[in-house]
Amino acid sequence: MTTIVFDNIWKEYGEHIVLERVNLALDDHEFLVIIGPSGVGKTTLLRMLLSQEIPTRGRILIDGEPIAAEPTADRGVVFQRYSVFPHRTVLGNVMMGPQWAASPILGRLFGARRRALEERAMALLARVGLAEHAAKYPAQLSGGMQQRLALAQALIMKPKVLLLDEPFGALDPGTRKSMHELVGELWEENRMTIVMVTHDLPEAFLLGTRVVAVDRRRTDPQAPERFGATIVSDFEAKCRSVRESRLFEAERERMRLTLVSGHSLPQDDALVPALVKD
Amino acid sequence: MRRIINYAPRPGVRLILAALPFILVVVAYLLASNARLAVEPADKLMPAFASFWATIVRMATTIDVATKQYLLWWDTWLSLQRLFLGLGISALMGLVLGIVVGFIPYLRSTFEPFFAAFSLIPPLAVLPILFIIFGLGEVSKIVLIVFGIAPFIIRDVMLRVAAIPTEQIIKAQTLGGSTWQMITGVVLPQVMPRLIDSVRLSLGAAWLFVIAAEAITAEGGLGYRIFLVRRYLAMDVILPYVAWITLLAFLMDYGLRRLADAAYPWDRIKAA
User: Fold this and answer.
1) Within 10 Å of residue A119's Cβ, how many Cβ atoms?
2) pTM for the complete prediction?
3) Torsion angle of C-alpha atoms B12, B13, B14, B19, degrees rounded to 10
4) Which residues make beta-bridge pairs with A215?
5) How far is B115 from chain A (nearest CA, A)?
6) Is B15 exposed, middle or buried (0-12, 13-18, 19+ CB in 10 A)?
7) Mean pLDDT, residues B232-243 taken together
8) CB distance A77–B270 less than 8 Å?
9) Does the pLDDT of residue B219 top 90, yes or no?
10) Cβ–Cβ of B190/A87 closer than 8 Å?
11) CB A78, CB A167: distance < 8 Å
């Protein structure tokens, strides 16, 4: 369960007000997409959720707790560019976070623990379709593959929230389409919250369960810096009940197939009893 | 007729063209030397190649009476020792100070202007101070080299640290990296190829400081020998020594380049 609350957030740079009175509450397992014109402060909003920038006023809460004042491992991120480390191989990039967590001084694992981690990283690379490129360096990959790598690198840390800052902005349309599918699937598989910034409307409504538009409500022509942007509209792009029912249908189909093929119900799956009860 | 910039030589021609200036210089020297030797067989300014060879063989294979050493190897050993110590200390200082000061904002605000001012002090102008403080021995020579090239290397490393995209540093923090882990795992590996490059660029300056220090006071060394035999107009020693120093510098440069290629293959891929 992860909930995010923006509690009356303001961001000012000196006299210049960028964002004002941003209030937003996100339920568990949402896919929030932030849209809006260029330079209006959507990336600033994302950066504040990442603690790359600190709000001038207001608080951001994750699960009811104020977020740390610096980026931490509970919030993963994929930027438009430079998200991966050029001096590590693809596999090395994915293994970086867990190795740091396990070995504070050397930042490296050895022996059986290393092999176990390698296996986990390779499984994740296979999931994003990079298994055969594990030994390459990022500079040898295409833009789309680098973004897949950045996703895998962030996902291995199992973050509560994944932040995407125009992750597909530099990709060609074909690659972009396959990335949409991948991100959608990863979002469902990992049951996490995703917050994405984009200026591509079809993309926003394709992926998002909730789409908010950020813009200025009012402007003063004499002093354009006096009023900041805020959330001007908030769409529920995919109703929660629709989403849940789709999940339910998929689960019921799986159960039907299991029963038809003569097996008993799997007992370890937490979802199944809940569905049976309903 | 295309523009001249659009004519490029073929690989074979390129090799010949590259060799051409070298051959021209040697031929010009030979012609001038022959002309002078024809007039005055004992001419000291432009000796023949045969006398270069005879001098070098003598210096490399016979023990000198005064120092009880094979002079060429003794001089080379002394100079290289000074050079390597000076370069090594400078590189280490550049790496440690450059990364720590470049990466930590408080240290950066404190020391960046200081290093910038420090690097503008002309090292040779403070050489007398070094002699007064450290004496006329090895220490003052090595300190001169460090004084001359360490500020350059520190600033170069700091610039490289600053050039690492913010996104990478933020990403490293979301992967749970501590300051130490980011220094050793993200900054250091990305700075190393640049450090090797800046040591390569400093080679010329390092040689300059070695030879300058040796010219003023030393018991041996390549620069010392050149300045010593100058009194006798011994061009048969000076010119081979200059060629030898050039060769040594070239080999070091080449070695460092190969080292960077072998140790940091990703840097080469990125540049390509």
Assistant:
1) 10
2) 0.82
3) 100
4) A230
5) 28
6) exposed
7) 90
8) no
9) no
10) yes
11) yes
- The tokens for A104 are 């504070």
In the predicted structure, residue A122 carries a pLDDT above the cut 80: yes
Confidence of residue B123 (pLDDT cuts 50, 70, 90): confident
Question: What confidence category does residue A277 fall into, taking pLDDT thresholds of 50, 70 and 90?
Answer: very low
Name the one residue in this structure whose structure tokens are 């994944």. A162
3-state helix, strand, coil in chain A (%, to 5): 40, 25, 35
Name the token pair of A20: 């004002």
Summarize the confidence of residues B220-245 as an average pLDDT: 90
Cβ(A146)–Cβ(A83) below 8 Å: yes
Instruction: Please determine, for residue A168, whether its predicted confidence score (pLDDT) is greater than 60.
Output: yes
Nearest Cβ partner of A104 from B178, B266, B269?
A: B178
Half-sphere exposure of B195 (CA within 13 A, CB side): 27
- pLDDT by residue (tens digit) across A24-37? 888 888 889 999 88
Contacts of A97 in chain B (CB under 8 A): 175-177
Residues A77/A79/A81/A83 CA torsion (nearest 10 deg): -10
- Region of A21 (left: φ > 0; alpha: ψ -120 to 50; beta: rest) is left
Looking up tokens 């100058």, which residue turns up? B230
**Do B267 and A71 make contact, defined as CB atoms within 8 angstroms?**
no
Q: Which residues of B touch A (CB under 8 A)?
A: 165, 167-168, 170-178, 180-181, 184-186, 189-190, 264-267, 269-270
Tokens read off for B121: 């002090």
Q: In a mutagenesis test of the B interface, which of A96, A99, A161, A166 is the best target, namely the one with the most B β-carbons within 10 Å?
A: A96
Give the tokens for residue B10.
């073929």
Rounded-to-integer distance, Cα B228 and Cα B245, Å = 16
Residue B264 in 3-state DSSP? coil
Positions of E strands within chain A: 4-13, 16-26, 31-35, 57-62, 65-66, 75-78, 161-165, 193-197, 210-216, 229-236
CA A229, chain centre distance (Å): 23
- Tokens coding A23: 């209030």
Give residue A271's pLDDT band: very low, low, confident or very high (50, 70, 90): low
Residue A24 to residues A58, A207, A212, A242, Cα–Cα distance (Å): 12, 19, 9, 22
In whole angstroms, how far apart are CA A17 and each of A44, A215, A223?
12, 13, 11
**Single-letter amino acid code for the residue at B211:** I
Q: Cα separation of A113 and A91, whole Å? A: 15
